[in-house]
Fold this protein.
Amino acid sequence: IQAVSPVSTTAPIALSYELFPPRNASASATLWNTIRELESTNPDYVSVTYGANGSNRDTAVELLNRLLSETSLRPLAHLTCVGNTADELAAIISELLDHGVRGILALRGDLPKDGSSASKEGSLSYAQDLIDLIRRVEQRRSALLCAGKVAIGVAAYPAKHPESPSIEHDVEVLLAKQRSGADFAITQVFFHADHYKDLIRRARRAGVSIPIIPGVMPFTSLRRVQRLGVMTGVDPAPKLLEALGRAEDARESRRIGVDATVDLARAALDAGAPGIHLYTFNEHAAALEVLDKLQLLRPARPGAPKEFSQPLPVRNIQ
Ligand code: FAD
């Protein structure tokens, strides 16, 4: 893989990857191959997604357990609160802590697509409510957690959240999440570096001081980019769609996509991003190619202990 010019920052860059729980045995085999490849790059953490309303709770917990017991990786457990009561969520949080998870990405989750409200009697409405709950559970279990607090991440939106009235409102929500105890934020996918830069500028001006890590996906196929646009409500850049649409084969499409991702990530890093979070779709090759082109790959530290006494995802981020 040919490396292009490195990023201009000299500060340590936090690396992390997003994985999702496998749906069947063959997906599990692919995922574990990916995990071993990613482990060799010594990331700061890997995040594990969680279906809204806990739809994949068992497979998510199983994957988190295996990451903790069979790898040197530190997992960040996504957790959504939509459709769950505080009692149900407190039980899930306790279970995660019992298993050794020390990092949680606190999310609301997407509302059901059929338009029905997710509101069940006593369910939490916003990610901020979930942060408050995690901090309360943490306090109740302070004897267990004497080695260090739980690191809480939250979502941030370079392009407006689809339900939000304005980008200013999004920043107010991010500030509220920080005040409730969020330690860092990871962004939704974005297609224009200016959207990330604007978010940082507006957030800092409003008093948000936590690290805001750009979430980037390797744009390797037109179909995936289009699907992601629909899923997230973020419009893909027309130029990228055009270039991917003109690609003659999968190989060319992948080259175009990786280069576009590298450009986007480099622009975010040049603007001061403290790390890169890669949406891997459980595939390592394109993610590692992006990091290689950014000259951000780093060797594994064999046998390195998991530093649970540290608030994990912020270790290299501040
Ligand atoms: P919130 O911060 O609660 O915001 C939701 C909406 O409510 C926004 O429009 C916000 O402006 C508004 N709002 C928030 N607080 C208030 C308030 N106090 N008063 C008025 N309005 C308010 N989804 C999954 O189902 N599983 C996953 O694993 C998952 N992982 C993700 C990882 C990342 C990095 C990101 C960026 C998103 C992820 N999502 C995941 C998607 C996420 O659940 C959706 O974007 C969801 O619609 C909003 O989640 P949130 O945590 O940002 O919610």
